[in-house]
Design a protein that fits this description.
The protein is an alpha/beta fold. The chain has a 3-stranded parallel beta sheet. Strand 2, helix 3 and strand 3 form a beta-alpha-beta unit. The model has no long low-confidence stretch (mean pLDDT about 90).
């Protein structure tokens, strides 16, 4: 099992927002609705991400995404 399988199992047709920095996050990014690579992440992961961010931005992005889903 990998992170992608777990995300699909728990998502149940809900959006998945993923944050990651290493190769083990690739399966998760492949099933995520939106994915954000952290600075220093592998090149392959950054190519799958919609944006590369600093770790300090995670909470802000989560708040924005939760608010946009509740509208």
């Amino acid at each position: 099992a990998h992170k992608g399988n777990a995300a699909q199992f728990f998502a149940n047709n809900r959006p998945i927002i993923a944050f990651g920095d290493d190769f083990n996050d690739i399966p998760l990014f492949q099933v995520a609705t939106k994915s954000f690579a952290l600075f220093g992440a592998s090149d392959e992961l950054q190519k799958l991400a919609i944006k590369t961010i600093d770790q300090s931005q995670i909470a802000k992005i989560v708040r924005e995404e939760v608010l946009s889903c509740s509208k």
